[in-house]
Amino acid sequence: MSIVYDEAQRLFTLHTEQSTYQMKVDAFGFLLHLYYGRRTAGNMDYLLTYADRGFSGNPYDAGIDRTYSMDALPQELPCHGTGDYRSPAIAVKNADGSYGCDFRYHGYKISKGKYGIEGLPAVYAEEDEAETLEIYMEDSVSHIQVTLLYGVLPAYDVITRSARIKNAGTEKVYLKKAQAVCLDWVCGEYDLISFYGRHAMERSMQRTPVSHGAHVIGSRRGTSSHQYNPMMILAEKEATEDAGSCYAMSFVYSGSFKGEVERDQYNQTRALLGLSDELFSYPLAAGGVFRVPEVVMTYSSAGIAKLSQNLHRCFRMRLCRGKYRDCVRPVLLNSWEASYFDFNGESIAKLAEQAAELGIEMLVLDDGWFGKRDDDNSGLGDWYVNEDKLGEPLGALIGKINAAGLKFGIWFEPEAVSEDSELFRAHPDWALTIPGRRPVRSRNQLVLDLSRKEVVDYLFEAMCGVLEQGNIEYVKWDMNRSLADCFSLSADDQGRVLYDYVIGLYDLLERLLRRYPNILFEGCSGGGGRFDAGMLYYTPQIWCSDNSDARDRLDIQYGTSFGYPVSAVGSHVSAVPNHQNGRVTPLRTRAVTAMAGTFGYELDPQKLSAEEKQEIKNQIKEYKKYAPLIQNGLYYRLTNPFSQEVCAWEMVSEDLSEFLVSAVMLEVHGNMTVQYIRLKGLERNCLYQEEESGKVYASDALMETGIPLPVEMGQYQAYQMYFHKINSSL
Ligand code: GLA
Fold first, then answer.
1. Is the CB–ligand 1 distance for residue 337 below 6 Å?
2. Whose CA is nearest to atom 6 of ligand 1?
3. What is the pLDDT of residues 171-216, one digit of tens each?
4. How many C-beta atoms lie closer than 10 Å to residue 57's C-beta?
5. Do 479 and 463 meet the contact criterion of CB atoms below 8 Å apart?
6. Distance from Cα 12 to the centre of ligand 1, integer Å
7. What would the pLDDT profile of 101-157 be if each residue is shown by its tens digit?
8. 520 alpha carbon to ligand 1 midpoint, in Å?
9. N or C: which end of the chain has fewer CB within 10 A?
């Protein structure tokens, strides 16, 4: 039993293999948080302390006991109205205009399996792999009922949290804030690790001490954004990659979000993660139900590497779905950087033939094949094939590509609309715009109002119309701007539009996934602008960044690796000088870097020399050989590219019998000093043989002192070494 309720002490204890989470219903019915950390037994309510503290008010129920204050006690569902002045997890505007709110315990239910959330992505599990705890909380005045949902997946060391909010009263109320998780620590000093960035430079890691004064990350863009990723790590000050306590929280949602961390007046820490409360005011009529998207939490007492590995496993195996979840993905060639908008059927077929010769397995036709679309100023929304441009029906082109031995994939940007399109001319009100105001343009396009069912229906039909035209085995789902002008003609209240938009997006994705279970969907939003756990439920891989330069990718992929598995990271080899920053890196370096992801190419093979073609053939063979290890292995960051001269990482098979080490030199100097890369996570006291040299190494020495990288001339030299365990003893 992973969830235990002790009736006498009104204590809920949640166990995963290596962690324990505990909470308690107190004498007044408040749900107090007691403990989250290394697995333990016992009752941890001794951690609660009580003192008469000025300006920390007391609930009426406490009578004249001035030591009982919600302003100091750790809680599961803090709200305004009980005397807690810290940031709340939930805020409600009542029918009388007041914000009073006070949730008390009303019962619980424990069931086998993991809960799902209607209309929203969520971690799933086999019936015997997980348990669900529902805790019922209610405000006795407004009759708002909150069901707190806890999913426990012991073998994954994961606990998920979500909530269902029901208006069981008789009048309409407004939900003003809804966070999926609140974690309170009564003591300790923590660092917040978060991931910031911008278009083409996503997920830079930042580690800052949690201090007095809230640290807030989030997005008000309607998508999870390039600027902040919806995931946070709280690490004890001393925690490193390999040691120490740390916690991760990842929001399974693709829209606006907010993450807050603050050290309070009593040096306690509170972390919250959930929906953004800006541009949010969700109407809840009598009987209405609101579903808060979930947060995945994991704890590691063994440092941040383990924390990442927990998330990787959970997302790879219990969040991603579909035929491709466990498969090595096809090596693809994407047409974007090869020809941008400048192509026709003949040139694409030629690209496919050339790709086939190199061993590439799929050709993806990117932007420009539909409507009037020869640049990025028109055509979005007109999802019908431009046969004049292709010079043939899509089905005929796909036939040729399949005949060349390649699968075929295609690009869509379903959520966007160009003002210069037939769709916009027919339905100008389908774009998000505020009546009487001129909308914000971005990439000269607007966003369709996916909170409206008829818009989602149109997109579904239009996309099916294309997907029926041939053997399409992959869809790249792009979204190239942030939302603005959030006004929906069909909404009763505008404070719901951003949330309903995401629900509409998920509905469209779900309908397409059901209709086309064999299509591999890859997410994209100007690269990694919507790289989140919510999208992974629908698209098991996401184009990691529009920046395909290998050097920048090392930083971007380093940051991404904290929260997301390699199997989710779309990564391609592109031409040099790189199209985003003009940098020249060796072909080998580009391949080694792209192999830390779903491998592919984004270039025109016709422009390659014979030697380069041969090198690419070898790269593909090499990738195919290591792909299962790359996709399923335990991922270790061996260095930090932001502060070290080399970027190195490692994938170790779960049984520790083999591993792959990759490294790229970031600096080159005269009379170079040698870089020793210390390996991690190997079996102790055994021997591993490196494949290419045949040399045998003692595992402990590899982990204690490391392996020296050969010194080579030239910038950004890359190394890849494969080792397997040998049976002879030391
Ligand atoms: C976005 C994507 C690119 C490409 C273009 C096409 O920028 O991230 O990969 O598909 O759109 O317009």
1. no
2. 367
3. 999 999 999 999 999 999 999 999 999 999 999 999 999 999 999 9
4. 17
5. no
6. 48
7. 999 999 999 999 999 999 999 999 999 999 999 999 999 999 999 999 999 999 999
8. 18
9. C
